[in-house]
Amino acid sequence: MVKIVTDSTASIPPELCTLLDITVVPIPIQFGAETFLDGVEPVRSYYERLGAVAEPPSTSTPSPGTFVDVYQRLAGETVISIHVMGTKSVLVNVARLAASMLPDRRIHVVDSETTTLGLGLLVIAAARAALQGQPAEAIVAWLDRQVPRVAVFAAIPQLTQLRRSGRISLGKAVLAGVLSIKPILYLGQGVADVVDKARGWETAVERMVQLAWEKAGGARVALAVVHTDAEAAAKALLAQIQSRFHCMETMVAEAGPTLAAHAGPGALGVVTLPLD
């Protein structure tokens, strides 16, 4: 049987991981000398720490040994290991290194070229296919076709964490903080960049939704709204926008500490995965 592995940047609710038999490798987040394990410790604990420290947290990568242990624990004949974009993280290469250390195992490592529920929706679809008995080769081929199509757009309420993280090329958007202009990020196809900006939060959110709609191009989609410590706003946004898309399924999820370490609290994102 095919087993699916991912990392905690996928932002999949724990109960869904259990239901779909998805194994999640937690991402370590450093608060000085203290380590927080994303996907293991409660998200609320993370935000409490985030609000209590002057220096921003930083994310790190699980060791090759961690992946080797995970792969060895799985009883499945084949493993498909799907991970956060390789252009912004070495994690997928660490997973590949671990797979090479187990030459007798059939392990496919896939770069999702995205993060949060962009990665998560790919993983969920792969896990469903695995549970239905689809062969690994067919699932990997489907992932190869869908990776270029999945898209994440995110509206960021403030620039502090993005400036500190250094992971996003802000360019002129750095100057926008003085003018109350909010950046809109695109996360997909290995890109994590500011693609637009809008004056005021409501305008930024609407522009983010419009960009997501244009990217979907009228296709049937799995639609998700993700957030960083803004669940009520995320649920309200999904209720407001889902009729604009040809939705096959919808969900709301916490984007998680890994993304919040860069975006800060209060961010909203719209994720689409075409299902045609």
Describe the structure.
The chain is an alpha/beta fold. Helices cover 38% and strands 28% of the residues. The protein has ten helices and 13 strands. The strands form three sheets. It has a six-stranded mixed beta sheet, sandwiched between helices. It has a four-stranded parallel beta sheet with strand order 2-1-6-7, sandwiched between helices. A hairpin with a 2-residue loop joins strand 9 (181-188) and strand 10 (191-199). The longest helix is centred in the middle third of the chain and has 16 residues, at 116-131. It starts with a strand and ends with a strand.
Q: Per DSSP, what share of the residues sits in E-state strands of 2 or more residues?
A: 25-35%
Summarize the biggest pleated sheet: 6 strands, mixed
What radius of gyration results from the CA coordinates? 18 Å
Strand order of the largest sheet: 10-9-8-13-11-12
Q: Which bin fits the share of residues in helices?
A: 25-40%
How does the overall form come out from the CA principal axes? globular
* End-to-end Cα distance: 26 Å
**What structural class do the secondary elements suggest?**
alpha/beta
Tell me the number of helical segments per DSSP (H or I, 4 or more residues long).
Answer: 10
Q: How many strand segments? A: 13
Tell me the quaternary state. Answer: single chain
SSE topology string: EHEEEHEHEHEHHEHEEHEHEHE
Low-confidence stretches: none
Average residue-wise pLDDT: 90
Task: Give a topology summary.
Elements: E1 2-7, H1 14-20, E2 22-25, E3 28-31, E4 34-37, H2 43-52, E5 58-59, H3 64-73, E6 78-83, H4 91-100, E7 106-111, H5 116-131, H6 136-146, E8 151-155, H7 160-165, E9 181-188, E10 191-199, H8 201-216, E11 220-227, H9 231-241, E12 246-254, H10 257-263, E13 268-274
Parallel strand pairs: 1-2, 1-6, 6-7, 11-12
Antiparallel strand pairs: 3-4, 3-5, 8-9, 8-13, 9-10, 11-13
